[in-house]
Amino acid sequence: MRTSISAAALLVGTLAASGAYAQSSVTVSGVIDTGLSYATNTGNGAQSKVGLADSILGVSNVGFRGKEDLGSGMGAIFNLQAGFNPSNGSQSASGQLFSRNALVGLESASGTLTAGKQWNFNDDWLVGSVFKGGYNSGSIFKFSEFDAVSEIYNNTVKYVSPEVGGFQGGAMYGFGEAAGTLRTGQVYNIGAKYNQGPFFIGLTYDHEQDGNAATLGNGSVLKLTTLATSYSFGAFKARFGGAYSNISGPGTFQSIPSMSARKAYALEAGLDYNFSAAFTGSADLLYRKNTTLSNNTKVYRLLGIYSLSKRTSLIANLAYLANGDGATESLVSTNSTAIGGGYANQHQMALALGIRHTF
What we know:
Elements: H1 2-22, E1 24-42, E2 47-54, E3 61-71, E4 74-83, E5 101-108, E6 111-119, H2 121-126, E7 152-160, E8 167-174, E9 187-196, E10 199-209, E11 221-233, E12 236-247, E13 262-274, E14 279-290, E15 295-307, E16 312-324, E17 347-358
């Protein structure tokens, strides 16, 4: 009799568990992006470099994404992503396992609320759709003052509204978590976008407070305003975006190294063309102007992506960077200790040929 009761209890427990699991899902996914690269004027500024490229268009990663149906249209969600370097298997961010996402939250018809380590709205909405390129490939967010065009922040709470008639908005707040003050290390990001048919436009504002309590009274703040738009017609897609950075002084910021007070703007204009269902080519011109230091940088880039399948693509990226009036930007960092990683007025060319596989 005891055996029968135990068996029945086990059967009921198994069925209940099966019902619970049927309402949950966990997906393992990732990207491996690597290839061969060649760059001029690296090292001492007059040397070339050949090697494997870690992440041509985006950081390679593996992650876990899940959702549980809580009923009444509400779901619990999580997202964990670990970045890595394919060339040697190391973490893309030293000491950070889930460096690309680490969040949990709730979603419903009223929107999505999440907490953890999360990307800003620039990366969610503008990077990839308007701002092209990747690491060492000539991208706007690699300019010294503009890392926050694509940035992930610690200790954040983020709300994203539902999309209504093509409109969507959101806000993110990052706690500095310093004792006795809310301002030290505080981050907030707000954004809105409209996406309907062939037209897209998005506007965001980022604000980072100095994370060093000892210098907080100096008013060190990073402010970044970003606007981007695109329009598709036939096989073409035209893209244009810009960002304005206002850094009030040296500070400990999450997105950029400490630098003196400066103001700068950056622009990107690009055109994509679908030569076939498998092959897309892009051409971009990027311009950065630091109005405080009166220097400038131009980047010219050609990008080709050929899809072998839905998951595997071949990539060819050619970028040329030209510094002017003392600018020290770089595509591939040199031995220079200057902000931007390059030498004053240095020109640099970088070529990457690779493969990108998603799973």
